C-alpha cells in the first residue's frame, strides 16, 4: 500500500487528498448506522492511520456526532510532533483531543480505531496493548467498532495478530484489500469489510502488478467444466483414482465420485482385491480395476488415455507405495498428490521435487498444515509466503488447505480462497477436494486454474450442502454447484480499475 500511495502522490494526487478521501469513506460507513447526537471516540495513533482518524473525527462532528479524539502517542511526543499529512489533519480538527487512556471508551456508541494501519511493524505491547484491550472490552459491552484500513494489531501482509489486536465490527480499507484481510486470523478481526476508492488509479495497479488475488472466476471462468455438445466420455477426459485396501477405501470413493461430478468423463478406481466389491458397489458409474499390488497399480497408471490421476487418499504409508507414485510422476498424466502421497514424498523430497520439475504435465500438491510441515519443514512465514515458497521449491502448484486456503504457482502467482466454511471441516472433505481437482485436470484444465476452481467449487458445495453435511453430501452438492453455472467474472491480477480481487501486497 505504501508504494501505491507513493506512486499516486508522484502522479499528482496529493497525500492530503488521499487522506481526506479515506476519512470521508470511513465516516460514510459509520453514518449508514448512526445519526447526529451519537457519542463517538476516535482512537488516533502517531502515523497516517491516525491522520485518517482526525479527518473522520472532523467529518463526524460536522455531521452532528458528539466526538472526541483519544490520541495515543509515544512517551514524550505531542500532537505538534505529528508529521506530514497526519499533522495537517490534526490541525484541521477543531474538537476535543485527550491523551488516550482505557476509560475514554466507556459509554461510547461508536469507536473508530485509527491506531495502527499498514505501518504496523512490530508487536503491540504496553499502553497500546491496554488501549486495544479496552476497545475490545467496550465492544463486548455494546459499542460498535470501526477499523480504519486494518484492525490495529493485525499485520496487513500476513493476517497475523501482532501481540494483540482490535476486533472490529466493520473495517474500511482503501484501494485494494490486503492479504491480512483475507488470511486468518486477520479476516475474523475485520468484521464486515468495505473497500473504498480514494483516488489511487488503475495505472498504479498496473505498475505495482500485484501477484496475489482473492480466488474468483476471473482466474478460471474459462476453465469451467462445461462440456461441448459433441463431447464424449473420452474427450471429457479419463482419470484414475488409486484406492487403499478395504478399511481405507472410503477416501478414494469420495475422490472418484468428486472427479466424475467435476468433469471427468470416466473415472477408473484402481483397487486392492479386498476392496473391489465395496468400491464397485458404491457407484455404478465407477470403472473398477483390481490392482493386486503396487506393480499392478503402476501398470494401470501407464494406460495411455489417462489424463489425470489422484494419488494419496487412503493409499497407504508402506514402503511399497512409493514406486507406484514414482511411476506416475514419470508418466504423462496430470497429477494430484494428496494425503498419503504427500507423506510418502516427504520421506524423499529431493527425489519427489526433481521428478515433478522434470515432467511436462502439472502436479497439484494439496497439503493441510500437518502435511505441509512434513513436506516443507524449513519453510516459514505467512501462509501466502509459505505456499509460494513451497510451490517454488517443489515445482508443483501448492494448495495449502484451511479456512483461508492458498493456491500458489511456482511462478509466484497466488490466490486466497474465501468461500470455504466450517461445513468443510469434516472427515473426507479433503478427499472430495482432491477428486474435484483430478476431474478438472482430466478435463484438460491447467493445474493452477484447476486447483483454484476446485477450491472455489468445494467451498460452494459446502455452502449448498450446509451444516450437518458429511463429505458424501459435499461431493453430491457439486451437482448443484455445476447446475448454477459459472459466476460472473471480475478480473483478477493487474490491469484495470475494476479488478477488485487483486490484493495489494506492498
Ligand atoms: N497518504 C498516504 O500515505 C495514505 C495513507 N493512509 C493511511 O495511512 C496508514 C499507514 O500509515 P503509516 O505508514 O503512517 O503507519 P501507521 O499509521 O499504521 O503506523 C504509524 C507508525 O507507528 C510506528 N509503529 C509501528 N508499529 C508500532 C508498534 N507496535 N508500536 C509503536 N509504534 C509502532 C511506525 O513507525 C509506523 O510508521 C494506512 O493504514 C492508511 O490508514 C490513507 O490515508 C491513504 C493515504
Ligand atoms: N474451518 C474451515 N473452513 C473452511 N474450510 C475448511 C475448514 N476446515 C477444513 N476446511 C477444508 O476442508 C478440507 C479438509 O481437508 P483434509 O484436512 O485433508 O481432511 P480429510 O483428510 O479428512 O479429507 C480442506 O479443503 C480444508 O481447506
Ligand atoms: K486501524
UniProtKB/TrEMBL annotation:
So where does (6S)-NADPHX get bound?
Answer: 48-52, 117-123, 149, 251, 314, 368, 431
Q: Record's NCBIfam families?
A: yjeF_cterm, yjeF_nterm
The segment(s) forming the YjeF C-terminal domain are 216-485
Domain YjeF N-terminal: start-end pairs: 1-206
Question: Key word Zinc present in the record?
Answer: no
- What CDD domains does UniProt report for this protein, alphabetically? YXKO-related (cd01171)
Q: Which residues bind AMP?
A: 401-405, 430
| EC annotation from Swiss-Prot or TrEMBL | 4.2.1.136, 5.1.99.6
As for what it does, the entry says: Bifunctional enzyme that catalyzes the epimerization of the S- and R-forms of NAD(P)HX and the dehydration of the S-form of NAD(P)HX at the expense of ADP, which is converted to AMP. This allows the repair of both epimers of NAD(P)HX, a damaged form of NAD(P)H that is a result of enzymatic or heat-dependent hydration. Catalyzes the dehydration of the S-form of NAD(P)HX at the expense of ADP, which is converted to AMP. Together with NAD(P)HX epimerase, which catalyzes the epimerization of the S- and R-forms, the enzyme allows the repair of both epimers of NAD(P)HX, a damaged form of NAD(P)H that is a result of enzymatic or heat-dependent hydration.
Q: Which reaction does it catalyse?
A: (6R)-NADHX = (6S)-NADHX; (6S)-NADPHX + ADP = AMP + phosphate + NADPH + H(+); (6R)-NADPHX = (6S)-NADPHX; (6S)-NADHX + ADP = AMP + phosphate + NADH + H(+)
Keywords on this record?
ATP-binding, Isomerase, Lyase, Metal-binding, Multifunctional enzyme, NAD, NADP, Nucleotide-binding, Potassium
Needed co-factor(s) = K(+); Mg(2+)
Which Pfam family, giving just one, matches this sequence? YjeF_N
Q: Please give the subunit comment from the record.
A: Homotetramer.
Q: Where does K(+) bind?
A: 49, 113, 152
**What is the name attached to this protein's record?**
Bifunctional NAD(P)H-hydrate repair enzyme
Per its UniProt record, what InterPro entries does this chain match?
A: Carbohydrate_kinase_pred_CS, CARKD, Nnr, Ribokinase-like, YjeF_N_dom, YjeF_N_dom_sf
Q: Which PANTHER family match?
A: ATP-DEPENDENT (S)-NAD(P)H-HYDRATE DEHYDRATASE, ATP-DEPENDENT (S)-NAD(P)H-HYDRATE DEHYDRATASE FAMILY MEMBER
Amino acid at each position: 500500500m505504501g508504494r501505491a500511495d507513493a506512486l499516486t502522490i508522484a502522479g499528482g494526487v496529493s497525500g492530503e487528498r488521499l487522506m481526506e478521501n479515506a476519512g470521508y469513506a470511513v465516516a460514510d460507513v459509520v453514518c449508514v448506522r448512526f445519526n447526529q447526537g451519537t457519542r463517538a471516540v476516535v482512537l488516533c495513533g502517531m502515523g497516517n492511520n491516525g491522520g485518517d482518524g482526525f479527518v473522520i473525527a472532523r467529518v463526524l462532528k460536522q455531521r452532528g456526532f458528539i466526538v472526541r479524539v483519544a490520541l495515543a502517542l509515544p512517551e514524550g511526543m505531542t500532537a505538534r510532533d505529528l508529521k506530514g499529512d497526519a499533522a495537517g489533519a490534526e490541525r484541521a480538527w477543531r474538537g476535543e483531543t485527550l491523551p488516550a487512556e482505557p476509560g475514554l471508551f466507556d459509554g461510547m456508541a461508536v469507536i473508530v480505531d485509527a491506531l495502527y494501519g499498514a505501518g504496523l511493524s512490530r508487536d503491540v505491547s504496553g499502553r497500546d496493548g491496554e488501549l486495544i484491550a479496552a476497545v475490545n472490552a467496550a465492544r463486548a459491552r455494546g459499542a460498535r467498532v470501526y477499523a480504519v484500513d486494518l484492525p490495529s494489531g493485525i499485520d496487513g501482509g500476513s493476517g497475523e495478530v501482532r501481540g494483540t489486536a482490535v476486533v472490529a465490527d466493520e473495517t474500511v480499507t482503501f484501494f485494494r484489500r490486503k492479504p491480512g484481510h483475507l488470511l486468518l486470523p486477520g479476516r475474523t478481526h475485520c468484521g464486515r469489510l468495505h473497500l473504498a476508492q480514494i483516488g489511487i488509479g488503475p495505472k498504479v495497479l498496473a505498475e505495482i502488478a500485484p501477484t496475489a488475488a482473492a480466488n474468483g472466476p476471473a482466474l478460471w471462468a474459462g476453465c469451467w467444466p462445461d462440456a461441448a455438445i459433441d463431447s464424449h466420455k473420452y474427450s471429457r477426459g479419463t482419470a484414475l483414482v488409486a484406492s487403499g485396501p478395504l478399511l481405507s477405501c472410503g477416501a478414494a470413493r469420495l475422490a472418484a465420485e468428486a472427479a466424475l461430478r467435476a468433469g471427468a468423463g470416466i473415472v477408473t478406481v484402481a483397487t486392492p482385491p479386498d476392496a473391489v466389491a465395496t468400491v464397485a458397489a458404491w457407484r455404478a458409474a465407477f470403472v473398477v480395476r483390481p490392482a493386486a499390488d503396487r506393480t499392478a497399480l503402476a501398470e494401470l497408471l501407464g494406460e495411455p488415455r489417462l489424463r489425470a490421476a489422484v494419488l494419496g487418499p487412503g493409499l497407504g504409508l508402506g514402503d511399497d507405495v512409493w514406486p507406484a507414485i514414482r511411476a506416475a510422476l514419470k508418466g504423462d498424466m496430470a497429477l494430484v498428490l494428496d494425503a498419503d502421497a504427500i507423506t510418502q514424498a516427504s520421506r524423499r523430497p529431493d527425489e519427489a521435487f526433481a521428478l515433478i520439475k522434470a515432467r511436462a504435465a502439472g502436479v497439484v500438491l494439496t497439503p493441510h498444515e500437518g502435511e505441509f510441515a512434513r513436506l516443507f519443514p524449513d519453510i516459514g512465514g505467512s501462509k501466502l509466503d509459505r505456499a509460494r515458497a513451497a510451490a517454488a521449491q517443489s515445482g508443483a502448484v501448492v494448495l495449502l488447505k484451511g479456512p483461508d486456503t492458498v493456491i500458489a504457482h511456482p511462478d509466484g502467482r497466488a490466490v486466497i480462497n474465501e468461500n470455504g466454511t466450517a461445513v468443510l471441516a469434516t472427515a473426507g472433505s479433503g478427499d472430495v477436494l482432491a477428486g474435484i481437482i483430478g476431474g478438472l485436470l482430466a478435463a484438460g484444465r491447467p493445474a493452477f486454474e484447476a486447483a483454484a476452481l476446485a477450491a472455489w467449487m468445494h467451498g460452494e458445495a459446502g455452502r449448498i450442502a450446509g451444516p450437518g453435511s458429511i463429505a458424501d453430501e459435499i461431493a453430491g452438492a457439486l451437482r448443484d454447484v455445476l447446475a448454477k453455472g459459472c459466476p460472473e467474472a471480475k478480473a483478477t491480477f493487474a490491469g484495470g480499475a475494476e479488478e477488485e480481487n487483486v490484493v495489494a501486497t506492498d
